[in-house]
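User: For my dataset I need records formatted as: sequence, then structure tokens, nothing else. Please produce one.
Assistant:
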Amino acid sequence: MLSQIKDHLSPTRTGLVVWDVQQALVGSIFNKEDFLKKISELVSAARVNDISVFYTKIVRLPEKFESKARLAMWKEGKGRGNRFEPGDIAQEIYPKDGDVVLDKYTGSIFVGTSFEYMARNAALSSLVFTGIATNMGVESSARHALNLGFLPVIAKEAVSSSDKDAHLRSLANMERLMPVLSNKEILNVWS
């Protein structure tokens, strides 16, 4: 499969998405040390290869303007609730000049942001997804990317979740739809 998608993953056509790697979320995942090592490796390689790096950050809306469905879920004890403070992006992979930080309010990088506009203007055809949580925003955004005609690639060593079983199920789901690759496979194409 890698030989078939190699051209799509060239540095000039690829963006790296760093999904919600915020302090509180990093503290809750099952594989913190390995995750931070692997995601740092990809972020560093992206910068060396002049690949655009897009960070997302969870931002809360004032309660008056929040989705009624989300508010109802939170009141029932589902989700993180309106009091959740994810914190800033983890220092180990903190954005640098030239990186893009997108505030977002939903589980898709494409809803309520200018991400699609920027990706298309930069002629990106592939998006490598990293971050937290595999089974939530990463999978949701990767599926959305596929539906919009981008090639989503999941960096399987650089995604995580607080729920290991859900993380593994999500990776298995995505393997049926899109490439799920190791860092080594991705880095070999970028080098």
